[in-house]
Amino acid sequence: MLTAGIDLAAEDTNTAVAWIRWTGTTAVLEELVIGADDDELLRAASTADKVGIDCPLGWPAPFVEFIVAHHRGEMVTPTDLIGRDWRRSLAWRHTDLVTREVTGRNPLSVAADRIAHTAMRCAGLLARLAAAGQPVDRSGCGTVIEVYPAASLRHWELPNQRYKGRRNNGALNDLMDQLVAATPWLQLGEFESACRHSDHAVDAVVAALTARAAAIGHATRPGPAELASAVTEGWIALPTAPLTDLVTASATD
After folding, report:
1. What is the pTM of this model?
2. Which one of 105, 108, 156, 232 has the largest count of C-beta atoms within 10 Å of its C-beta?
3. In angstroms, how far is CA 62 from the centroid of its own chain?
4. Count of alpha carbons within 13 angstroms of residue 248, beta-carbon side
5. Which residues does 196 contact at the CB level (< 8 Å), separation at least 6?
6. Is residue 155 assigned to a domain?
7. Is 67 among the domain residues?
């Protein structure tokens, strides 16, 4: 099995993609690209069995309806919610609320944070994949899944805060020390140094690990009542098993 992880940013410079090859008892980081352009990302999505993208795959349905109504001059004054509560009802997807309940952390709002710039790029990539004949399912039932590296790290009891940016290189190296210790079966090879100097590289690797969890049934999936919203808004796949299960669980590689 080949999984890929994409730490997506609005621009190529801060975008990274990692490919991990799984053999059942070991995993090898075969390739790592920092500063990945759209062609590299499409290559990952086209060649891997499962691809984890660190970016919202859709927008909240109430937000989309609000924007369309406002654009057309048909906006109806809300009566059930006012002020902050009303704005929050527009800002968060269902999967964001589920993730907050599970992890205690709020994902960035694709409707009200700068991550929307990244989501626009992601939407373009998904459209290109679909145009090339590859089915795209935002609920995670297809090749592409939405991931949240910080939440994955939290579940795996690894450092998951304040490791981003040059000022936090010490924390990044501490994260790498603990990740390496927790995954003796993961061969980083020549790419370990890059991971110790780039949080984008680390998030791409974690995204690829999470993609493996999803591929073997060890990540959350939307239930019947959640599927309709997940198909349009996206669904964050959260690991549900320890790191060791990524290589010990029964799976076809």
Report:
1. 0.94
2. 156
3. 22
4. 7
5. 172, 173, 176
6. yes
7. no
- Cα torsion through 141, 147, 151, 152, rounded to 10: 80
3-state DSSP assignment of residue 144 = strand
Pinpoint the alpha helices (H) of the chain.
38-47, 61-72, 83-91, 94-103, 115-131, 149-155, 169-182, 192-197, 199-215, 227-233, 245-248
Residue whose entry in the numeric block shows the structure tokens 């002020």: 83
As given in the structure block, the two tokens for residue 239 are 């690991």
**pLDDT band per the 50, 70, 90 thresholds, residue 208:** very high
Say whether pLDDT at 82 is over 80: no
Place of tokens 């109430």: 62
Amino acid type, 125:
L
Does residue 80 sit within a domain? no
Range of the domain at 47: 2-58+93-248
Query: In this predicted structure, what is the pLDDT of residue 81?
Result: 67
